[in-house]
Amino acid sequence: MVLFGAASLFCFVYGVIAGQDGSGYIVAGIMLLFGFISNIRTFMHRNQMSEAGSSADGPIRQVGTDDELEKAIAAEKALIYKHSPTCPISRAAFDQVIRFAKKYPTVPIHMIDVVRQRGLSQSAAKKLAIRHESPQAIVVTNGKPVWNASHYEITVDALAAQLV
Predict the structure, then answer these.
(1) pTM for the predicted model, two decimal places
(2) In 3-state terms, what secondary structure has residue 59?
(3) Dihedral (C-alpha) 138, 44, 86, 31: value to the nearest 10 degrees?
(4) 54-163 has which CATH code?
(5) Domain ranges of the chain
(6) Which residues pair with 140 in a beta bridge?
């Protein structure tokens, strides 16, 4: 990340010093700066995911296998959250899921990363007979989907109305 920041600063400063002949460097510097900002946002998002407890023992469990997906679906009542770590709308929905998890820590939440686990995400869509969307929240009760929402419909209040 530091390399991106230093490279963008160098390109931008060189472009300004070189004047019109260095306009390509200004553009390159701006592009690198946007890449740097994107990397910072991704890093912060990953930290947010780990702070949310996305480990096996935390309130939000990462689903990694078909067996784990089957167990999540078979739960008496649970939330399956399909998440894209590269999507800003998904980040906003994930913030709502985290807030819900903190407010209601006993509700099982199972997360599927739709980028890294595309096959698992498609498997969930097929098994639950619900068209894939991302982000997507699916409430399951005893093996059956009973409610689902996507995008900005995923809120703490909407989740609580279905799960609490």
Answers:
(1) 0.67
(2) coil
(3) 160
(4) 3.40.30.10
(5) 2-49, 54-163
(6) 78, 145
